[in-house]
Structure formats: C-alpha cells, structure tokens
Amino acid sequence: MTLTEVPAAEQEQRPDASSAASVPASAPTASVLVQPGAPGYTTVELDPTDDADKAAMIDVDEWAFSFVYPTEALENTHFVPEKGRTVGVRHERDGLVAVHASYEADLRVPGGAVPAAGLTWVGVHPGHRRRGLATAMLTTHLQRTAERGEPVSALFAAEPEIYGRYGYGLAARSVDVQLGRGVALRDVPGTEGLTCSLERASEDRHLALVADLLDRAARPGELFPRRDAHLRNYFAEVPDWREGAELRRIAVVRDADGDPRAFCLFRRKESWGPTGPEGTVRAGLWAAVDGAANRALWGTLTDLDLMGTVRLGGLAVDAPLLGQLVNLRSAKLRTADNVWVRIVDLPAALSARAYAAPVDVVLEVTDTVLPANAGRWRVEGGPSGARVTRLADGDPTPSGLALDVAELGAAYLGGIGLASLVAAGLVREVTPGAGAAAAAAFGWPLAPVCMADF
Length: 454
Fold this sequence. Notes:
- The protein is an alpha+beta fold.
- The chain folds into three domains: 3-171, CATH 3.40.630.30; 175-201 and 248-337, 3-Layer(aba) Sandwich (Aminopeptidase), CATH 3.40.630.30; 345-442, SCP2 sterol-binding domain (Nonspecific Lipid-transfer Protein, Chain A), CATH 3.30.1050.
- The protein has 13 helices and 22 strands.
- The strands form four sheets. Strands 1, 2, 3, 4, 5, 6, 9 and 17 form an eight-stranded mixed beta sheet that branches.
- Strand 3 and strand 4 (112-124) form a beta hairpin.
- The radius of gyration is 23 Å and the shape is globular.
C-alpha cells in the first residue's frame, strides 16, 4: 500500500522521501506481462493518469485492504503509482480484479545506493483469490524489474507469509516505541548550542529541509522514490486520516549558526482523564544527523504540555533514542518486520555494496523464479566493494555457503547475520566456518531500517 492509503493512527508517518542527492537517469521501460493460468483473466498495463484506470485501481485496493479512500485524499494528495510501472489483471466479466505497481527508487545499501523497484499496491479482489493472480503479477514485476536493469526490489509486506515464496527475504527489523511524558534521557555532549523550534509544517518552507536531512541521516535500507510527490504527500492534510488530531507540526533542531540538524513531523491529539491531561504526540517522519541533535529533538517532544504519551514507529533496532533512555524499561517496545529485499540481478546487487571485512566466499544459490541468479557465485572484496563472478560447471573451488535467494536478500543490508541464518537452519554451511567469516563481511556497523511504508 502507499502512504496515502492509511489512516494517521496506523501510519503517522514514516519516511517515503526523495533523496536530495542526484540520481541516475530513469530506468528503461519494461514490456513483460505474465498471464494467469486460470481462464478468463488477462494481465494488462494500467495508466494511473487515466481517470478510468485510476478509479478501478482504487476500487480493487478498497476491496483488498478493507478501507475507504477518502475524497479529500484524491483532492489533497498526489496519486503516486507510476505510468509504465503499474500492472493489473482484468476478468472477462468483472473488470479489474488485481493490481500492483512499483516505484522507481534508490535503495541505500552498505557503502552506497542501488537502483531499486519499490513494490507497492499489491492487491487482489477477495472474490478472485486462489486463482494464480498474485503469482502472475509478482512474476511480471520481477521480470520487468530485471528488464529495466534494477538489481533489487524492496517492499513492506502486508502478509509476510506470501513473499518468501517469490524470493523476498526479511532484511531489516524495526521497533515501535511508546514513551511517557518527561521520560528520562541521558545527557549528550554537544546539545548546549542546539535549539529546537516548533512550527506549523509547510511544504513551501520545509520540503527542502526535510529532504536534505533525510538524505544526510539515511541508513542502509532506506528507500528513496525518485519522484518528489511521495515526500510532498507528507505535507498534505486529509481530515479523515487525522482522526481528531491537530494539523501537522514540525520540530526543527538547529545549531548556533542556524543550520538544521534534526526534524520531526508530528501531530498532537488532546485527551483528558480523571486526573488531568492525557494527550498523545504522534511522531511521524523524522531524522537526526547525530546523537546531540537526536537528544535535543526527543528532549523537546517528550516534554510538551498537556501530553501524556509520545508514540513513534519504524526505529532501527539500534536507534540512538533507545540508547539515550536512562531506563529502557520505561518504554513500551514492539519489534516488527521492516523492509523485505529481493535480489533481482545477483552480481549487480552484490557488487553495488561495500563489505565490512575482507570477503572471499563462494555462494551456491537457488532461485526458482529468476533462474539467471541460480548457480555458484564467487564474491571477492571488502570495504571498497566486491567483484562477483559466476563459477563454471566443474570449477573445483569449494562452495562456502548454500542458500536460497530469499536468504541472500535477508542478509543483503547487513542487519540479518548469515551466521544466524546458518544457526536457524536456513543457510547450509558447506565449508566449516564459512558462515562466521561471511557474516563478518556482510554485516554493517549500523542496523538497517526503512522508515517508508510504501
């Protein structure tokens, strides 16, 4: 689903932002359309700029996700599915009954970024389930992603049970946090010269600031769609999605020279209990470039008058805020699955990232959906990058690890250790000790996270 489809209380709101950095030219168009096996169904191109296709897409999405797309959302937000990247399935009698789309994006990886297809809007009408429509769409998506030359695909899974069978692996976990007002935070050097202002959020005043700080603070796992419509939607107002909360505000931390160091888009919602105010701060899109700015930001937002609770989601499992809490038990924490990654072009994907330690390992990979990835691959490199080569049949070089492409996707961002996957029985260690050595190289100092529900 897209950001613009979910009520504020459920998704208030996590980064779905365009990078301020320059990006490569647009990916080439793709033409593959895999047809369902069931009779009466046809996979078709959709044009999100066409009123009839747009209305049909929204109807399918409302059926698939059990929600109503408010009129104000159509009027006040950008409709973000992209022409040339949106595909559906039509039934001979019922019309459009399934849809999916992808965003042209860049995925942050250890040491850099890689072009990526952000899979989204995957939905099937409940009256047309179990007929192979999702398989046709996802196979279409992966083949078109390969055709466009995008080495990876990423998604947030509405139903995690589905996507592993198509080669997606859970590449990052995240933490949702609830804090009480005035929660004790540790002192951090460097906060003395920082100030935090509270302002009404404005696209005209704050869009460039938000884009710059998101780019500077991004970790591996962050997905940046190349169209700025995604980021602009964070400044849109849809009354139904506020659910009684105020209009969006922004907290901005600046240094003594006035340069921005952190921000958070947020809303407050008043509430009163028997003993007084019990309001809630709903923290949404945010970023901080260092620990001092992070401390200044949350020190302000956890001490607002008439508020009793601060809620924020999508934190990395090693987020600075968690380390700055004096008493971790004072927070209510929930760990969730975060972004899923699918390796589409194995040599391109593995050579696009850096490695935390020297690596020389042969990976024996299976991939039933994209057979070009299957085989034995030698990965040689280190912190400056890697060379990835396919070993010919009969090459005597021993394999280090045997794994499915889904497990390779899980390990790709450096947050899910290959050694832990070996311990779980999901990766087979062909050469003793290969799991630990590969884990040291594929790991990364900061845990990955994607704060975008796309």
